Amino acid sequence: MEAHPKQEQTLVIIKPDGVQRSLIGEIIKRFERTGLKFVAMKLVVPNEDQCWKHYNKDEEWFLKKGTRIAADREAHGLPVEKEPLEYGKDIIQANVDFFLSGPVVAMIIEGNQAVGIVTKIVGGTEPTTSDVGTIRGDFTLDSYALSSLDNRSVRNLIHCSDSPEEAQREIALWFNKDEILSYRLVQDAILYDVNLDGILE
């Protein structure tokens, strides 16, 4: 049986830079004030295998990203020392290394169109081109070009799932079923009840 739309879930991870910059509360507040519900949350240091499974990239992705990196290096007069595929794999290795550098906050957020709403609040992957008003646009300043030149992961504070299907795959990597709660918030009535029964006594 398919879940009701108001039960759509997404995975959000505050990365080590968000934790180290003491932005946990500010980030959580951005989601909470929309009416989305937190159904699981934990502070963890992930393991390498978990992180590689989390990113779940194929050779086509590695080649596309690696080709961009090689072009960036050429444009800045730097030597291209590897095949594009290897540069692409280096992106994920850098992301994995970054995830392993310190604690992260993993959480499951639930609500109508949770994936889309969270994505809108978080902003684009590259902080310098992310809109003002988004988490990445407001709280950090990294760019693809700088991270590529420095040969490191983009420090963009947060991960969020791209689609409901991807969210379910990622959630299973980060949470056991018994860690996910089912409960009612008082605000659910004003957000979801069809005829607002029970608001007036």
Q: Any overview of this molecule?
A:
- The longest helix has 17 residues, at 59-75.
- It is built from ten helices and four strands; from the N terminus they run E-H-H-E-H-H-H-E-H-H-H-E-H-H.
- It is elongated and about 75 Å long.
- The mean pLDDT is 93.
- Strands 2-3-1-4 form a four-stranded antiparallel sheet.
- The protein has helices at 16-20, 24-32, 48-55, 59-75, 84-99, 114-122, 135-139, 144-150, 164-174, 188-192; strands at 9-14, 37-44, 104-110, 158-160.
- Helix 4 crosses helix 5.
- By secondary structure, the chain is α+β, with helices and mostly antiparallel strands.
Average residue-wise pLDDT = 93
- The share of residues in extended strands comes to 5-15%
Shape: elongated
Number of strands: 4
The radius of gyration over CA amounts to 19 Å
Termini gap: 35 Å
Number of helices: 10
Order of helices and strands: EHHEHHHEHHHEHH
- Residue stretches low in confidence (pLDDT < 50, at least 5 long) are none
Provide the helix percentage: 40-55%
Widest sheet: strand ordering: 2-3-1-4
Going by helix content, strand content and strand pairing, the class is: alpha+beta
Main sheet attributes: strand count, strand direction, barrel closure: 4 strands, antiparallel
